[in-house]
Amino acid sequence: MSFLGFGRPQPSSAEKIAAVENELKMVAEMHSRMIKVCTSKCVDKTYREGELAKGEAVCLDRCAAKFFEAHQKIFEQIQTETQNRGGGPAF
Amino acid sequence: MDAGLTQAESRELDQRLQKRQVKEFMNVIGNLVDNCFNACVDDFTSKALSGREGGCISRCVIKSMTTQTRLGERFAELNAAMTAEMQNKGR
């Protein structure tokens, strides 16, 4: 997801640092959201057990994979839609 | 993510990332507290946590940490795969 250096003038120091930081921020946010969503969908909310059940564990693995796939699909579709509607800059 | 940073820029970035990590850690704790409180505490006839609520919170914390570890591993795998795929597409 790095858009630096495609024939544009050299980015400044601040821009380079900001770009890396922003990329990591996006990754961290995605990580946090995935945990919230998959915990909500897969983990028994009554917390009768302190251990993760086998079924819950498998659910979490699948949820993570689906989350990534859905994220990518949505991202691409938004880009397509934005371009089709003649709108603004792509991401 | 190799933006070709100088040593000074690298140091600046490291500092920023450290701050971000602390922030992220606080965020994780906050989410855990919210989640376990919402799941376990619903009896306000007393101002002290009941035994049941306390036990639930303990199990919730342990389970949440196990969940986060597992999801963290899945996330790293999926993120690496996605990054590799994007780099291949870009060629």
Distance between the termini of chain A: 10 Å
**Which class of secondary structure composition applies to the elements of chain B?**
mainly alpha
The CATH superfamily of the domain at 13-74 in chain A appears as Mitochondrial import inner membrane translocase subunit tim13 like domains
> Which oligomerization state do the chains in this entry correspond to?
heterodimer
Shape descriptor of chain B reads: elongated
Rg of chain A, rounded, reads 19 Å
Describe this structure in words.
- Chain B: Keywords: Chaperone, Disulfide bond, Membrane, Metal-binding, Mitochondrion, Mitochondrion inner membrane, Protein transport, Translocation, Transport, Zinc.
- Chain B: This is Mitochondrial import inner membrane translocase subunit.
- The complex is a heterodimer of chains A (91) and B (91).
- Chain A is mostly helical.
- Chain A has a domain at 13-74: Orthogonal Bundle (Helix Hairpins).
- Chain A contains 2 helices and no strands.
- The longest helix of chain A has 31 residues, at 54-84.
- In chain A, 16% of the residues are buried.
- The mean pLDDT of chain A is 88.
- Chain B has a single domain (7-89), classed as Mitochondrial import inner membrane translocase subunit tim13 like domains (Helix Hairpins, Orthogonal Bundle).
- The model of chain B has no long low-confidence stretch (mean pLDDT 90).
- Chain B has helices spanning 7-40, 51-89.
- Chain B is elongated and about 60 Å long.
- By secondary structure, chain B is mainly alpha-helical.
- In chain B, helix 1 (7-40) packs antiparallel against helix 2 (51-89).
- The longest helix of chain B has 39 residues, at 51-89.
- The two termini of chain B are 15 Å apart.
